[in-house]
């Protein structure tokens, strides 16, 4: 894939002067989104569980454009540390990307461990809500006053049954309804949207395509799986003022899979 060039508007990158927090951003979709936001002019704080990969990821950003803090996305102390650090360093927050998510199980719902199900909901749903609540409540960041933008990561598995990852899809269906509800409750000062990818070639999704990529991609009208950069471009649009009249939307990024009647 050729390197993407940030879209210009009035001679400036779309996100010039903006700041962002991207969770789950040491690799894959989260890192691609963070890179794209930075390329469009934003300063970005990236978070993830493990400091090593996070530090390596941060080294790829332009000097002065990135902060990185390790911790669990569902840990309130970690959330407070991230937001306080952003406030102290940049004095504002404009964009929150809730990318952190887990799927520790694979198999039919009838075999699902209830404790694993609770853990998925804690991180994917309650963790997403907690980040939004913490950002809106942080007075120093003035997220509402600045007209902030929230992007939640969903999945096409929220909209159609997906073999082996049924409860993950259920959690993402909750994220989609959470997105719609927050869009109404936080309007007009904050926009809230979600991205719903199909299979994207990341380490997180390897079990869904590894060793059978050609067969899996044949169900997609565009005849390929997604890349993290495909998701990042859409994220940059929704985070920018180009999407100033867009809220409460779920943007499917699936190569045409759903309209063709395919399963996630």
Automatic annotation (TrEMBL):
Q: Where is the Ketoreductase domain?
A: 18-198
Q: Where is the signal peptide?
A: none
Question: Keywords in UniProt for this one?
Answer: Oxidoreductase
Q: Which domain of life is it from?
A: Bacteria
> Which residues span the membrane?
none
Q: What is its EC number?
A: 1.1.1.47
Check the record and name the InterPro entries matching this protein: KR_dom (IPR057326), NAD(P)-bd_dom_sf (IPR036291), Sc_DH/Rdtase_CS (IPR020904), SDR_fam (IPR002347)
Q: Name one GO molecular function term.
A: glucose 1-dehydrogenase [NAD(P)+] activity
Q: Which family is annotated? A: Belongs to the short-chain dehydrogenases/reductases (SDR) family.
Show the NCBIfam families listed in the entry.
PRK07231.1
Name of the protein in its database record: Glucose 1-dehydrogenase
